[in-house]
Amino acid sequence: MRLRMRVFGPVLIVLALVGLTTVPAAASSAAPRWLAKPSAFLDGVACPSVSLCFAVGVQNTPNHDSLTLIERWDGHSWSKVWSPNQYAENGLYAISCAGPKFCVAVGNTGEGFEQHSGALGAIWTGGAWRRTAVISPSIGRYDIQAGLDTVSCPVAGWCMAAGSFSLSGLVEGYSNGKWHLVPAQVTSGYNQWTSFSCRTTTYCLGLDDWTGGEYDQGVKVMKFTGTQWWQTPTSSGGWPFLALTCHGTPACVSVGSVNTVPIARIQDGVRWKPIPVELGDGPSELSAIRCLAAAHCLAVGSTDQNSGPKGTGQSAFAEWWNGHSFVHEHIVIPSGDQSVLNAVACPTPNLCVVVGTENNRTLIEQSPTPAGPWSVVQEER
C-alpha cells in the first residue's frame, strides 16, 4: 500500500465556499492564520454542522518522517488538534462524520514507502480524537502493504472503510465499537478502493480501482446491501471514475476523467446517465464530490494550466452541479504554480468546504453564493 499523496507544493490550502444564501457572520470575520507546517497537505474533510468541520491529511517533519494531521473548524477559525501516529510514515486520507459527536478518519502507517505498512484509524466522539483499532493484517510483515483510503459513516456508531491489502481490496466495517472484515466480490488482480458512500447501514455504493493486466483495467462499481459487497453489472468494461456520493438527492453522482477530460454520471435508481461537464482551461480531473440536494453538488480536482491560456502549471479546479449540468466554479486561483483540491464537504445549503494543497501558502476562500463573488482570507509566508 502506498501513501496516497497528491502533493504538488510544500504547503497546505483550505478553501471554504458558502453557497446559496449568506455567509455565517462568524466565518466572514475569521482572522488569517497558519494551519500547519509548510510541508503539509489535506486530503479529506467532513462537516457535521456549519460550526464544526474536520480536515485530515499529512505533515512532513524535518527528518523526512510523515505525521498525521487533523485541523478543526469551530465556526470562527481553524486550529490543529491531536492526531494518532504509530510508525515513521503516517497519513490520514479520508474522514466521515455522522453528526456532531461521531467522526472517523482513516489512513495508513508504516516504516517507509518500500517497507511494510498497515491501516490506521482515528475516532472522535465529542472530546479528543483517539486511535481506533482498525484491522491491519500487514503490520510486522516486511513485504506486505495495506491501508484505508475511504470511509463512510451514515449513522453514529456504524461505518464502512476500504482501501487495499497487498494485491487485494481491504474492506472493514465498524459497529458495536469494533472493526471487522467485510466480504467483497473482487476480480482477480490488483484492487484498491478509491471511494464509496453509504446512504444507510444496508445500502452503499463503492468504486474499486482494478488492474488485471497492462490493458485490462478500470474502476468497478460495487454495491453493499447489508452483508457483502457485490460487483454491479455497470462494472463490466470498467469506469474512469474516481469518486462518488450517494447522500441526499440525486441518488448517486460519480465524477472522474477520460483522457484528461472531466466527466460525470448520475444514477436515476437503475441506470447511470452522462452529465454535461464544462471543460477547464486545460487537461482536467475531478477527484471528489459531495451533494446535498438535487441542485447542490460540488466537485473538485485540478486542471493543468500549462496547456491553457495562463500557462501556470497545476491549478485548483471546481465544478458546480446546477441540476442540469456541471458548470465551472470560478474560485480564486492561488498565484502559486501548483494547487489541487482533494476533498469537499457540504453540511447545509449555506456552507461547503473544500481542501487540498498549494505551494508556499495557506488559503481560505469564501463566497456568499455558488457564483461568487469570492473573497480570500490569506497569509503570505
What does this protein look like?
The model is unreliable at 1-38 (pLDDT under 50). By secondary structure, this protein is an all-beta fold. The protein is globular, with a radius of gyration of 19 Å. The two termini are 34 Å apart. The protein has one domain (12-380): Methylamine Dehydrogenase, Chain H. The strands form eight sheets. A four-stranded antiparallel β-sheet has the order 2-3-4-5, with no helix packed on it. Helices cover 1% and strands 54% of the residues.
According to CATH, the fold-level topology is: Methylamine Dehydrogenase, Chain H
User: What are the secondary-structure elements, in order, as H or E?
Assistant: EHEEEEEEEEEEEEEEEEEEEEEEEEEEEE
- The name of the CATH architecture is 7 Propeller
The portion of residues assigned to helices is under 10%
CATH class (first level) name: Mainly Beta
Shape: globular
Question: What does this entry show, briefly?
Answer:
Helix content is 1%, strand content 54%.
Write the topology of this structure:
Blueprint: E1 12-17, H1 25-28, E2 40-49, E3 52-60, E4 66-73, E5 78-81, E6 89-97, E7 103-110, E8 117-124, E9 130-131, E10 146-155, E11 158-165, E12 168-175, E13 178-181, E14 190-200, E15 203-211, E16 217-224, E17 229-231, E18 241-245, E19 252-258, E20 261-267, E21 272-274, E22 284-293, E23 296-304, E24 314-321, E25 326-328, E26 339-348, E27 351-358, E28 361-366, E29 375-380
Antiparallel strand pairs: 1-27, 2-3, 3-4, 4-5, 6-7, 7-8, 8-9, 10-11, 11-12, 12-13, 14-15, 15-16, 16-17, 18-19, 19-20, 20-21, 22-23, 23-24, 24-25, 26-27, 28-29
